[in-house]
Amino acid sequence: MIRVLLVDDQPLIRSGFRALLDLEDDIEVVAEAADGLHALALARRHLPDVALVDIRMPHVDGIETTRRIAADPALAGVHVVILTNYGLDEYVFHALRAGAAGFLVKDVVPDDFLHAVRVAARGDALLAPSITRRLIHRYVSGPPAVPGATRTALAGLTNREREAVTLVARGLSNDEIAGRMVISPMTAKTHVNRAMTKLDARDRAQLVVLAYESGLVTPGHEAPPG
Q1: Tens-place pLDDT, residues 82-106
Q2: Angstrom distances, CA of residue 127 to CA of 16, 19, 133, 204
Q3: pTM
Q4: How does pLDDT run across 44-55, given as a tens digit for each residue?
Q5: Which strand (E) or helix (H) includes residue 111?
Q6: Looking at 8-90, which runs of residues are DSSP E strands?
Q7: In terms of Cα–Cα distance, which of 39, 87, 31 is closest to 63?
Q8: Helix (H) or strand (E) run with residue 109 in it
């Protein structure tokens, strides 16, 4: 059962999402909150698999809520999905940097919304490649400004791990990475997981952001062939 926390200061939006989720046999809405502080308390109480968090809220906004969830070891299993009215909201990239697993626009069609919840619960990133490139291009500019520890960790990646990270940043799934690198899906997953561990990335979304910020991947360049 996928446990979901709904966080939005608009009751009508929460009720609409809840109505969709309540129809699914494998999804349960465990709690609702209208602001970030309440959401944090509920997240610690219920330990949801997915927190759907509005980016603009009073008191504690979605970015800070995401940052606090990501920083709390007790909430390591909570995958935050940011809800926004605009696909390129100026705050979306900052939310991804804070630890969000991805984002959804609020006018998403029901089937895509339900699919996204299930994808997030698995720990996969909700980042369409085309939108990811536009976000990165817009908000990551100039020479990479990467902490020394991260540079050291990048240097510690094997060639295959670096290739896997590059392909993750291009939006490929583990199966697609396996096909590109001519390896098994399990081996592809192993490369990705080891890279996440070495880079201290919370999930695939943070791996994508770090790949661009570090200069390992640059907008406008295709992934190398396998």
Answers
A1: 888 765 556 777 787 888 888 888 8
A2: 23, 25, 10, 9
A3: 0.72
A4: 999 999 999 998
A5: helix 110-121
A6: 27-33, 50-54, 79-84
A7: 39
A8: none
Separation of first and last alpha carbons in the chain: 37
- 25 vs 178: CA distance, rounded Å: 32
Burial label for 170, CB within 10 Å (0-12, 13-18, 19+), is buried
Among 158-167, 180-189, 210-219, where is mean pLDDT lowest?
210-219
CB 116 within 8 A of CB 98: no
Judged against a pLDDT cut of 50, whether residue 223 lies above it is answered with: no
Task: Report yes or no: 57 and 8 within 8 Å, Cβ to Cβ.
Answer: yes
Residue 211 has φ and ψ, to the nearest 5°, of -60, -40
Q: How far, in Å, CA of 101 to CA of 219, rounded?
A: 20
Residue where the block lists tokens 């200069």: 215
Query: Which single residue is written with the structure tokens 């990646």?
Result: 157
Task: Please say if the pLDDT value at position 73 is more than 80.
Answer: yes
Rounded to whole angstroms, how far apart are CA atoms 105 and 110? 12
What is the rounded distance in angstroms from the CA atom of residue 116 to the CA atom of residue 69?
A: 19
| Type of residue at 179 | G
